[in-house]
């Protein structure tokens, strides 16, 4: 298991590489060019610059999250061809500098959805919160305007250029079915995976967040059955998963069972915990298994059982010790650092017991 930490780049993340360096066990930075719009070709100069900054701090750059998929590809529009070509060339350029895994998603319109970014919890911390009844009774544009008002950082999936066309995009998805999305995902994979096989980059699709339909938009990567269908679209070891325990944990999924079934196709793990409520609400919790609905201990034990050698990062943490005043929503420093120590503690314990 190779521990990593997501970082949003100089000038775009108040967590520094120096901060991350002080977290035991972190080997790599999960990075991206976050100012690049979906569909743009990444320049070799920009890639090389980011590589130099990260490697100078003592980290590897093996994992990119994300190379975003343009909406026209998801919709299957004729214009998708140029965006797919840009995607393929970007993969080739990333491979040249040593990137080994690319995380992406195929969610229509939104990469993730919450109703509150800083919901206060009983202990005084706060976290990302999803209130299902509010989602069912709010216009998505109203929700976006509410949440983005006081946020001064780029939020993946909620980029200004994407949100500015929200009404137009929703119009394009009228009468668009899950089967339409499956068909367009298969087409994308058929074009991209041969390039991955050629250059040695493994693609890992991120589950939908939350793992059920919202705003009338289809969702695909939401459960064990659908993951199996996805992996069979293009049956290649380069077509795999960025398995997120929090996204799948937003619905009643048996995540250790999913790991048992598809462990050889998991290239990247996002480990986090969510507390799920009977009414469909959920909130980010600490990484401790007893604090949420995801058995994070069993998740790590199951990965160890299969000899997992892929990449792991702590995902969304709570905002603690006042960091909500400066932290990116879900991506502060302290709770993710605590999460790393919890994950590594479980792993080390299993490892030691296995050797004794």
TrEMBL record:
Pathway: Carbohydrate metabolism; pentose and glucuronate interconversion
E.C. number(s) listed in UniProt: 4.2.1.8
The keyword Lyase belongs to this UniProt entry's keyword annotation: yes
The protein's enzyme class: lyase
Keyword Ligase tagged: no
Ranges that cross the membrane: none
Swiss-Prot/TrEMBL catalytic activity: D-mannonate = 2-dehydro-3-deoxy-D-gluconate + H2O
Signal peptide: none
Cited Pfam families: UxuA
MF term (GO), any: mannonate dehydratase activity
GO-annotated biological processes: D-glucuronate catabolic process
Superkingdom, taxonomy of origin: Bacteria
Record's keyword terms, sorted: Iron, Lyase, Manganese
Cofactor(s) this protein requires: Fe(2+); Mn(2+)
Similarity field: Belongs to the mannonate dehydratase family.
Function: Catalyzes the dehydration of D-mannonate.
NCBIfam families: PRK03906.1, uxuA
Protein name: Mannonate dehydratase
Native source organism of the sequence: Vibrio ziniensis
Gene (UniProt): uxuA
